[in-house]
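Hi R.,

As promised, here are both runs. First protein below:
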Amino acid sequence: MTTTALYDIPGPRTRARHRLYGFGATVVIIALVVWIVYLLFDTGQFTAVKWSPFLYTGIQELLLTGLGNTLRAFGLAAVLSLALGAVLATGRLSEHRIVRWVCTLVVEFFRAMPLLVMIFFIYVALQVAPLPALVAGLTLYNGSVLAEVFRSGINAVERGQREAAYALGMRKTQVMTHVLVPQAVRAMLPAIISQLVVALKDTSLGYLITYEEFLHAGKLIASNLDYGLPFIPVVMIISPIYIGMCMLLSYLANWVSRRQQRNPKVEAVEVAAAEPGTLLPGDHQRHV
């Protein structure tokens, strides 16, 4: 029987035991799903009354409007968070102590502050409209987290890359934009996408400040007595859409990563082979 450096390849009995474990786990999961579906049917969650709201044009337009507002808030928060994170990360990497301390204080403060508290403070204390209040809270929190992602990614690049760039006479801005950032992007991309997924899900906090986003629209439908409080149907409609948007972001990150691997920015350059008889300047005098 062949082995690997980490573990022994399972034999026939072990494989049979693993198949038995897999079959047992599958049976348990199927039984759990059947039990949940039975409870939903038993409590009348699939009755026509609870699902009838989604057949009306007004309800569909309400959901589409809420989805559009969610995407609008997410788009603004994503762009502003990336910009704020880049600025704060640059400040934390600055050689000026005052700038570095100020940016560090800002990052640590907004990372520690609960997002809901920030949104309520901006909305209630500063009397800001719901959309700007939600976007501002998401930007401050996610921008601070992304600043640490950017800083860690740049510091993860080998120190020799930076020293070689300085040895070539490049300025710090050129070193950052042409050497460090392009190499750090690949390492930072999964963490960036993960944080954007968090920002997308956190847009649902907008319903607490009366922002008419997707979850707010679902709450209005679920609390309607005329349709028997269709809470479960609303969840079954809204949840797959949220999951689909998050999976789309993850797919986009994987696509960008594969594209970068197939098309590297720096390609090998063919160097012509040295030819015999090539003389350096002044060598012909020594050979005369």
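And here is the second one, sequence first, then its structure tokens:
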Amino acid sequence: MGAQLRVYKRRIQAVTATKKITKAMEMIAASRIVKAQRKVAASQPYATELTRAVTAVATGSNAKHPLTTEVDAPTRVAVLLVTSDRGLAGGYSSNAIKAAERLRERLASEGKEVDAYIVGRKGVAYYGFRERKVEESWTGFTDNPAYGDAKRVAAPLIEAIQKDTAEGGVDELHIVFTEFVSMMTQNAVDDRMLPLSLDEVAKESTRKGEILPLFDFEPSAEDVLDALLPRYVESRIYNALLQAAASEHAARRRAMKSATDNAGDLIKSLSRLANAARQAEITQEISEIVGGASALADATAGSDK
């Protein structure tokens, strides 16, 4: 076997092995998307009803609370960025980081100082490489988050919104994550968690034809809001983590399918080149045999004379 043919065969074997790996990863990601979608759907009713309850308490009382009260001139905000722990997911993490950068620039143009909170190793690495300060970071659960993970993430954010800015607190909470729309569409979005925009919730309820429930508050509206604040933030973060996980699996499945298809195309191209090299080698061998036979015949004819 010629040297060139051996090179092609080794490359075909390597690409074939890679294709098997990417195909397996594609199938694993596809199976996990379904589970992630179910979790997103299961978490949505609780988050919706909790938001309606908070809105009802806020609209039915004059309570001043970080959950619902707008600051006249906010100066400091917290931004929670959700990325992935692993790669091989196309532009999933980079799109979320770009959305966070756009939000950061907009907030800075408004004269607001931004405190960064990061979920996922990709976001931590991005900020670490640029030597930016990160208030808190969490890793190790982005592809399969649990409610306990959301509680851990929410704890320092709740503490920050309850503090005064002079003591290191913040006036607003924002979250940047990848919203799962469909298997083919995932959008990086930024959303303000706190203070809750009561007008927007009321408009959404009116659009859907819903009527906000009426509640009696015991012992007071402030105490009720204090109790609802951590639940609201945790539920919002949990829903965002679940949507981000579903988006990550969808992006990884799409990236692995593309890699598998590209590997198949490369194998076909290398096979054609290997066949051409083999044909050239056979042709050369035939030419050498014919040439040797012709030389032998001429030598025999010369000796007969």
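A quick note on the second one: The longest strand covers residues 172-180. Let me know what you think.

Best,
J.
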